[in-house]
Design goal:
By secondary structure, this protein is α/β, with parallel strands linked by helices. The chain is built from 18 helices and eleven strands. The strands form two sheets. The chain has a seven-stranded mixed beta sheet with strand order 7-6-5-8-9-11-10.
Length: about 450
């Protein structure tokens, strides 16, 4: 992954450029004006089906329409600035809505609340499915399938997200530089302290003790490695495939005087050698890809000593939503995390076949992610002048606002989960296969 410094950072393909499906839909609307009128009628008809909460729509001509019942749930407001917004929604569903937002075709005074309203009325609004959405869906799916997480491909996919630069992430993360859900102990607890509390829980569930050698898969910017090495006294080998994160994590470890305990390696999980007392991985598994789930757990199985524990934190979908996501490509997969895919708990369990790993405990910390994301979004929006000074434009800002808002709504409504899973190495099984480097 290439690091972009504050002066070098700039919008690129993943930072907000409209994809080919969005361009195709816009061209259709321009050539066939009646499509815009039909799309608006279909959108308003869908709004009439809202069962929970209230939606107010401000049309491009300034007229306002209200649907639903404000006493039953969230209250969202949608301002349409251009008729093509409805066309995008009709022909590309929820992904089209995201693309239209980034293009400035619509807005909302409270984007997380509107996303929450859409989430709880997802079936009524018919934001997915429909034969008329097949062309746009096919374009996205083909592009996503080309981003397979081979050893080489995984590095390219990680670059697409993290080459925005370490300084960009410093703008909205807390002092621990942790890019995963915190776990709050109290309503007034700071985000930084909640992140440290999360580290403590992860460490306790992995059974970490002073002197143990722990493997961390996915370094981030070194937050957990600093905790495990500095607070517990573990030896830590942390691996990452991001040069940018590797450089900053190594610097932070050196500044903390922990070079004798913590080693950060630029290495793929499939290239790990040696045996460890415990394994920790915090929200890295989402970047593995379904076709490599088994390879990931086989690598963990090889690296973990008999009887050892692994503590894994991962964002997930309920199983009913897993297969549709695996077969297609949603907005976040298209524009934020290329090659990414959220597992389900059932998919994780199936992927353990052929390993000695047993699931011992599962906790869902999704409610804590709502608060974490709200804090990140608030920090991000308060630093927009700094974002612009780094060279990012308004499309990029809208893209990240949309990403943080729909993620918050997803955890708030049960669309997404965030599991902390404890595995123990137990029974014997067949030998695993090697890494795929194509």
């Amino acid at each position: 992954m290439a690091k972009a410094t504050a002066s070098e950072a700039r919008p690129h393909r993943v930072s907000g450029d409209a994809g080919p499906a969005a361009g195709m839909i816009s061209a259709l609307a321009e050539r066939v004006p009646v499509v815009e009128r039909v799309a608006q009628r279909v959108m308003l008809a869908a709004a009439r089906r809202i069962k929970v909460g209230e939606l107010t729509v401000q049309l491009p001509d300034g007229r306002r329409r209200t649907f639903g019942d404000p006493t039953t749930g969230p209250r969202g407001e949608l301002h349409l600035h251009h008729p093509q917004a409805a066309v995008r929604l009709l022909l590309a569903g929820d992904t089209g809505a995201g693309e239209a937002y980034v293009d400035g075709l619509w807005s909302s005074p409270d984007l997380p609340e509107l996303a929450k309203l859409a989430s709880v009325n997802r079936d009524a609004l018919a934001l997915t499915g429909g034969w008329w959405r097949l062309p746009a869906r096919l374009v996205r799916t083909i592009a996503h399938r080309a981003r397979r997480n081979t050893v080489t491909g995984a590095r390219r996919n990680i670059e697409a997200h993290y080459d925005l630069g370490n300084d960009f992430y410093r703008l909205f993360l807390d002092e621990t530089l942790t890019y995963s859900s915190a776990v709050f102990e109290a309503a007034d607890q700071s985000l930084a302290d909640a992140q440290r509390n999360k580290y403590r829980l992860i460490a306790e569930r992995a059974g970490l003790r002073e002197g143990q050698h722990v493997l961390e898969i996915g370094t981030g910017w070194g937050g957990f490695a600093l905790y495990a090495g500095g607070e517990i006294g573990c030896r830590v080998t942390s691996i990452t495939i991001s040069p940018a994160q590797h450089a900053l994590a190594t610097q932070r470890i050196r500044e903390a005087g922990l070079e004798d305990r913590v080693t950060v390696l630029l290495r793929d999980y499939r290239e790990v050698v040696g045996t460890f007392d415990a394994i920790v991985s915090i929200e890295m598994f989402e970047a593995v890809g379904a076709e490599y789930f088994e390879a990931f757990f086989q690598a963990c199985d090889r690296a973990l000593r008999p009887g050892g524990l692994m503590s894994l934190q991962t964002i997930a979908f309920p199983d009913v939503s897993y297969e549709p996501q695996r077969r297609g490509a949603n907005w976040i997969q298209t524009y934020i995390f290329p090659g990414g895919l959220l597992p389900s708990l059932a998919a994780i369990e199936r992927s353990l076949h052929g390993t000695k790993l047993l699931i011992r405990r599962v906790d869902d910390i999704a409610p804590h992610y709502v608060r974490t994301l709200a804090a990140w979004r608030s920090r991000f929006l308060s630093r927009l002048d700094d974002v612009r000074a780094m060279g990012f434009d308004e499309r990029f800002i809208r893209m990240w606002d949309y990403y943080l808002s729909i993620s918050q709504a997803g955890f708030d409504t049960g669309v997404c989960q965030d599991f902390q899973i404890v595995f123990e190495k137990g029974r014997a099984t067949r030998a695993p296969s090697g890494p795929d480097r194509d």
